[in-house]
Structure formats: structure tokens, C-alpha cells
Design goal:
With about 150 residues, the chain is mainly alpha-helical. It has one domain. About 80% of the residues lie in helices and about 0% in strands. It is built from six helices and no strands.
Length: about 150
């Protein structure tokens, strides 16, 4: 039995409303991840220096983290509807790589430099910002490319 043939996944695949709701949830989740991570990255890179970094980190890290959790849940359901097709898709593989690198980088940055990143040098903050920006924009673009690339 494959993941795609499980009863709840089959129901999701063939239910117009259920699939649409999960898909809309995934779009919202992506908006939260990218909408949190990109402004945070810009602040870490040095934009808006008059805005306290700790306040930006507190709000946008939580926003991006909540979006990531939602995206992982909704994305897992969407993935399960066509798992074998997605696994063979190069754009999907690239998307997953960007997500893994972006998530790992964020976790390591907070673990190494403190929750508010107040232990990081300006150079470290710029590196964190560059990796984050590349990863989340890369995940967004490669995720959209899944529909246009086949394995």
C-alpha cells in the first residue's frame, strides 16, 4: 500500500473542497513564512536601524515559524496526494533542499546567537540574512515551478 492509496489521502485528492481548503491553507502558510522571513532578513542585513532588532526578531520569527509549521502540515497532505510524482520532480527536490537549509540555518542562528540574535556580530547577521533570503525566495520560486517541471 502506498501513501497515495490511503483512504484519507484518496478522499483529499478527489474532494474538490477539501483539497481547495488544504491548498489555500498552504498558500496562507507560505505567505506567513516568506512575509516573516524576508522583512526580518532585511532588518538583519541593516535596513531600518532605528527599529529595535529584538522587537523585529520577536514578531517576525514567530510569524515565520508559525507559517512554517502550517506549511509543513498542509504541504505534507498535498504531497501525499501525489507523492511518487512529487518525489521525481526536480523542482520539488530543490524546494525541499531550500526548506531544509533555511530551517536549519534559522534554528542554528537562534541556538548560537540567542533568541533575539543579540550575540551575533553585524557580519554574522548579514550572513544569516543572505542565507534566509535565498532559501525562502528559492523555496517559493521552486515550489511554483513544480507545476511546470516534470520528473
Amino acid at each position: 500500500m502506498t501513501l497515495e492509496s490511503l483512504a484519507p489521502i484518496t478522499t483529499l485528492r478527489f474532494s474538490r473542497w477539501a483539497y481547495a481548503i488544504v491548498n489555500a491553507g498552504h498558500v496562507l502558510a507560505i505567505a506567513l513564512v516568506v512575509g516573516g522571513a524576508l522583512p526580518l532578513s532585511l532588518r538583519l542585513f541593516g535596513l531600518w536601524p532605528s527599529v529595535p532588532r529584538a522587537a523585529v526578531v520577536r514578531v517576525l520569527s514567530l510569524t515565520a515559524g508559525a507559517g512554517l509549521a502550517m506549511a509543513l502540515m498542509s504541504g505534507s497532505l498535498l504531497f501525499a496526494t501525489r507523492a511518487s510524482e512529487y518525489l521525481a520532480n526536480p523542482a520539488f527536490q530543490i524546494k525541499i533542499a531550500f526548506i531544509l537549509i533555511g530551517t536549519s540555518s534559522a534554528v542554528l542562528a537562534h541556538a548560537r546567537h540567542g533568541w533575539f540574535l543579540d550575540g551575533a556580530s553585524d557580519m554574522a547577521l548579514r550572513r544569516i540574512a543572505i542565507v534566509s533570503g535565498i532559501c525562502w525566495i528559492g523555496a517559493l520560486v521552486s515550489g511554483r515551478m513544480i507545476a511546470f517541471v516534470s520528473g
